[in-house]
Design a protein that fits this description.
The complex is a heterodimer of chains A (231) and B (599). Chain A is α+β, with helices and mostly antiparallel strands. Chain A has 2 domains: 4-77, Ubiquitin-like (UB roll); 136-229, 2-Layer Sandwich (Alpha-Beta Plaits). In chain A, 27% of the residues lie in helices and 13% in strands. Chain A has helices at residues 22-28, 79-93, 102-110, 148-153, 192-196, 205-211, 216-229; strands at 4-9, 12-17, 52-53, 61-62, 73-74, 136-138, 164-166, 173-175, 202-204. Chain A has a 3-stranded mixed beta sheet with strand order 2-1-5, with helices on one face. Chain A has a two-stranded antiparallel ribbon with strand order 3-4. In chain A, strands 6-9 form a two-stranded antiparallel ribbon. In chain A, helix 6 packs antiparallel against helix 7. The longest helix of chain A has 15 residues, at 79-93. Chain B is of the alpha/beta class and 599 residues long. Chain B has 5 domains: 3-78, no CATH class; 92-114 and 127-166, Glutaredoxin (3-Layer(aba) Sandwich), CATH 3.40.30.10; 177-406, Rossmann fold (3-Layer(aba) Sandwich), CATH 3.40.50.11540; 408-499, Ubiquitin-like (UB roll), CATH 3.10.20; 504-595, Up-down Bundle (de novo design (two linked rop proteins)), CATH 1.20.1440.230. Chain B contains 24 helices and 15 strands. In chain B, helix 1 packs parallel to helix 3 (55-65). Chain B is globular, with a radius of gyration of 24 Å. The N and C termini of chain B lie far apart (65 Å). Classes of the chains: A alpha+beta (231), B alpha/beta (599). The interface between A and B is large, with 55 and 55 residues.
């Protein structure tokens, strides 16, 4: 029998098993804390920080990786919490193409975040769309650096280790060894990275071609031709 | 699949001429069995042999250390001193951060670019030399400074650039000051390479004393010194040892890690200790290992401190020869401890202790989520006491002099002495040792006051992650309690002086550029916020310049800086992001007109 802890979230008392995160505890009482990088089946890395809440600490805590403490008083909606959340989203919108990330856009609407807050010319992600294999496209202009693809490619699922990073800081982007095309990496095309991508950065090629108005026959032709060309 | 379940990697034809792998292969054969933790040393070896990390080398490392190629790529991309493209073996690195700018770095950089015909990041066509402008080199008291390969140079001017480039410019020596000399007693007085000289100057007395106590009594003694972490986080040293000692696991799997990744603009105290009194750190670590019960010692030195690295390596080797490291140290049966000195490769974030562990483990220097804390899950996720250089050396001197004498200095809550890194517009920049409780004004007076008889505009206290203060804060005592009351951090002891004519906006821009350059890219607020902060500060600092985001201060800038600073402080994952807005926010508060739109 595991120990439990009792805390309040937005004034509501809740009792959860020790080790439960604030995010999970909030879910049990129908309090939705926004998340971007979090995925329930992947290692939590606390990257996006839009789930930051006031838990009485020196600074805010990321709800997805912070465990509940006995007597903790959590505020998920204070002005300070919203200010941080809104600013992160505004910075993200000035950096990344969020046109195919409806959940993030919804978050922005809820917080009255201004996608145009930063002046024109603020540095944004700028990458060529990569069409280097028959299975999926990589458009890192839409990448928020949530790491999900890197994680499923490595110890969180597939142990294929085809992905890492270029650069660091603002210039961090997902990369392969020496920027090789996917066909020239250890990628086994399991598709898990595409499945967990929260934006349109990774997209099945079929889907992309359907969106562009190609009919199924021509898509089949296109991808088959690519496959023949492999060797 | 190949052995060990790793996928085979597809061979790619190399564009570069064939690389001779024979020398490197013998190195890999030597270290290969240690696996991924040898990745940074192997990449350093590759840099030394080839000047960069060619494909063949990366592929050989992958096979020898069992590291996926993508991960090797990611590591090279992360650390600025590793290169994925051809670079010269001789790299010139010249500092462009605040203390050097105050000292005249602009003219030095212009003269070097002119002489070499190279801009930042460029390599000469014959591959003889590479030129880089880099963040703070940790020699602020000697500004302006640069590195020519492994050789540091101080007090550069446009006139001595030739001597610097041909290697004939003399290497600098430490400049210790202060009314008491405990931590600095041997600095500048002994031959830092000589074990005999160290022993002849009260070396290894502390270890003898410590070994007379039980480890538990040693920890109680250390707790009674009241030493808080001198790297800026202020965690009580004795407590950290106690937690690490109490964590599950035996001595063979516990670690003493010294954080010598001193990289914060304005900070150079640890460099002075490591360069001029390296044996003191080795002795202090040995005492720590006895108290904690940890047999593995590591010193992680920033890549820009080649001299510290060499002198520490020499000290470790000589201490081992003298029976002060290894098995049954000092003849005490079962007391085993050894030290490995590791070299960083250009990443301030590795001064964050968990990022430092990742670097030793051969990964990108991403900080980890805490908890769990290093005392239970540190290096290799084993119990680890991670300590700053000055913290351990202070402990050594406290043991040498005894608790009463140590507590005879300072205040009840801030006992003993502290090192300060004085730089900028001041007559006698250098490293100063003072008892806790002296005021900023006294420190400034001791350093000869503001240079050229000018008035004071402000002081950057605590470091790049610290705050700007003006004259009104100079009478607070420099103690933990005094700084709390005054609203400034003691941090790493930075005291960078700006005179009435100094360009504060320029310094703010340089600090914001530093954080944008050094953000690891893990969490969103720091990764994005440090960039946006820098973009705005560039327009503030250079109102005449046409930048990517426009020209001059905009009406929205101040509120954006406040929101971005708030967000980085409150929501960033680690201490770097949480302090990346600190100096800028403090300057805006102190000098509201700095960020004022003319429109």
């Amino acid at each position: 029998m595991s120990e439990t802890v009792t805390l309040t979230i937005d004034g509501q008392e809740v009792t959860v098993p020790e080790g439960t995160t604030i995010l999970d505890a909030a879910k049990t009482i129908d309090i939705d804390i926004p998340v971007i990088c979090y995925h329930e089946h992947l290692t939590g890395n606390g990257l996006c920080r839009v789930c930051s809440v006031d838990s009485g600490g020196r600074v805010q805590s990321a709800a997805c990786v912070t465990q509940c403490g006995q007597g903790m008083e959590v505020d998920t909606q204070s002005e300070d919490v919203k200010r941080g959340r809104r600013t992160i989203l505004e910075m993200l919108a000035s950096t990344v193409d969020l046109s195919e990330a409806p959940e993030i856009q919804e978050m922005m609407d809820e917080l009255d975040a201004d996608a145009q807050r930063f002046p024109e010319g603020s540095k944004a992600r700028e990458h060529e769309i990569m069409d280097d294999n028959p299975f999926y496209l990589r458009d890192y202009n839409q990448c928020v650096n949530c790491w999900r693809c890197v994680q499923v490619c490595a110890e969180d699922a597939q142990y294929t280790f085809a992905l890492s990073f270029n650069g660091r800081g603002f210039d961090t982007s997902i990369a392969t060894y020496q920027d090789n095309g996917m066909m020239d990496t250890s990628c086994v095309f399991c598709g898990q990275c595409v499945g967990v991508c929260p934006t349109g950065a990774l997209k099945p090629k079929r889907q992309a071609m359907l969106e562009e108005g190609y009919d199924p026959d021509s898509i089949f032709e296109a991808t088959r031709r690519k496959r023949k060309n492999k060797s | 699949m190949s052995h060990n379940g790793r996928p085979d990697f597809i061979e790619i034809a190399s564009i570069e001429p064939k690389v001779d792998l024979s020398l490197f292969q013998s190195y890999l054969n030597e270290v290969g069995s240690r696996g991924r933790q040898m990745l940074l040393p192997a990449l350093h070896k590759a840099q030394e042999l080839y000047g960069w990390c060619p494909r063949e080398v990366q592929e050989a490392i992958s096979l020898a250390l069992h590291v996926p190629l993508a991960d090797i790529h990611g590591v090279i991309e992360f650390y600025t001193m590793f290169y994925n493209e051809p670079t010269a073996k001789q790299v010139i690195r010249v500092c462009e951060d605040p203390a050097c700018t105050l000292g005249g770095a602009d003219a030095v950089i212009a003269a070097m670019q002119d002489k070499l015909g190279l801009q930042h990041g460029e390599t000469a066509a014959d591959r003889s030399i590479t030129f880089e402008k880099v963040p703070c080199l940790g020699m602020c008291e000697l500004a302006p400074v640069a590195l020519n390969g492994d050789k540091p140079a101080a007090h550069l001017t446009a006139d001595n650039v030739d001597a610097f480039l041909d290697g004939s410019h003399p290497e600098p020596v430490a400049q210790p000051y202060g009314e008491v000399r405990h931590l600095l007693k041997r600095v500048g007085k002994v031959d830092p390479l000589s074990y005999g000289d160290y022993v002849a100057n009260d070396g290894y007395i502390g270890l003898d004393k410590a070994l007379e106590l039980s480890p538990e009594d040693l920890i109680s003694t250390v707790e009674s010194f009241g030493i808080l972490g001198r790297g800026g986080a202020m965690f009580p040293l004795g407590r950290k040892w106690l937690f690490t000692r109490g964590a599950p696991g035996d001595a063979s799997e516990k670690h003493i890690v010294v954080n010598a990744d001193e990289s914060e603009p304005g900070t150079f105290k640890d460099r002075c200790l490591m360069e001029e009194d390296p044996f003191a750190l080795i002795e202090a670590m040995t005492i720590a290992s006895y108290g904690v019960g940890a047999e593995n010692g590591w010193i992680f030195v920033r890549g820009e401190y080649p001299r510290s690295f060499a002198r520490l390596q020499n000290a470790v080797d000589k201490a081992r020869d003298a029976g002060k490291l290894g098995k049954d140290i000092n003849g005490k049966k079962g007391f085993n401890f050894d030290i490995e000195v590791r070299l960083g490769a250009g990443a301030y974030i590795c001064g964050e202790e968990t990022a430092l562990f990742e670097a030793i483990e051969g990964k990108r220097g991403f900080p980890r989520i805490k908890p769990p804390f290093p005392t239970t899950h540190g290096l290799f996720y084993k119990p680890t006491s991670a300590n700053n250089v000055e913290t351990l050396v202070a402990m050594l001197h406290a043991i040498n002099m005894g608790v009463d004498a140590w507590r005879g200095y300072g205040t009840e809550q801030s006992p003993g002495t502290k090192l300060y890194c004085v730089s900028g517009n001041v007559e006698k920049p250098g490293i100063y040792e003072l008892p806790f409780g002296a005021t900023g004004r006294e420190l400034l007076a001791m350093a000869g006051g503001v240079s050229n008889g000018k008035a004071l505009k402000g002081v950057l206290m605590g470091g790049a992650a610290g705050v700007f203060v003006d004259d009104s804060k100079l009478d607070y005592p420099l103690t933990y309690e005094g700084s709390r009351e005054g609203g400034f951090p003691l941090g790493s002891g930075v005291f960078m002086v700006f005179d009435e004519d100094a360009d504060i906006a320029r310094a703010m821009y340089e600090l914001s550029r530093f954080f944008a350059h050094e953000s690891c890219g893990k969490c969103f607020p720091c990764q994005l916020g440090s960039q946006r902060q820098m973009e705005i500060m560039e327009r503030v600092a250079f109102p005449e310049k046409e930048t990517a985001t426009g020209q001059g201060v905009m009406a929205t800038d101040k509120q954006i800086l406040l929101d971005v600073g708030f967000t980085m402080t409150e929501t960033s994952l680690c201490g770097l992001g949480q302090t990346a807005g600190s100096a800028v926010l403090s300057a805006i508060e102190l000098w509201p007109d700095l960020v004022k739109s003319k429109k």
